[in-house]
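On to my pick:
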Amino acid sequence: MTPPHEHGDRPSAATFEAATGDGPAPTEPPAQRQAAVRVAFEGLRQIRRLMNTEHPDPLSAPAAWERNQMVRAVALALEAAGIPPSAVDAAGERTATGYRVGPADQPGVVRVEWLGPAGSGATQEEPEALRRCADALRPLGWEALEYRGARRHRHLEVEAAI
């Protein structure tokens, strides 16, 4: 019997990529994307259950895999929380308002920004949107601190709390 993902009728954890906000908008129908996110996030929860056996609450602390793939892990957590990712077109222009997760300036830390196309109002949404991102990450064992950078642009710096 051929695994379902080889027929293209179900998402596969091997082919799933969390939206970081730096790529194109997901092309699959929203219900299909949400199903893929749920499957991937449940896989992440299972990794935590298996790898965090020394922790009193294994689901509340990032596993080693997450610490080694922080951009992907944080992006998955945000997408699973229903927070929309930003997106860019082939020319690198923003086409959607949402989070963007990328590496920070120091190891073991990722940066979460709230970005959108010019004139989208993303800057006005930034404080509340970043607060929602931090609130989604904290119960999962991520420490999310807000900073202001150039032109008073806000962002989160996220690292494993434990």
Remarks:
- Residues 143 and 161 are 5 Å apart (CA to CA).
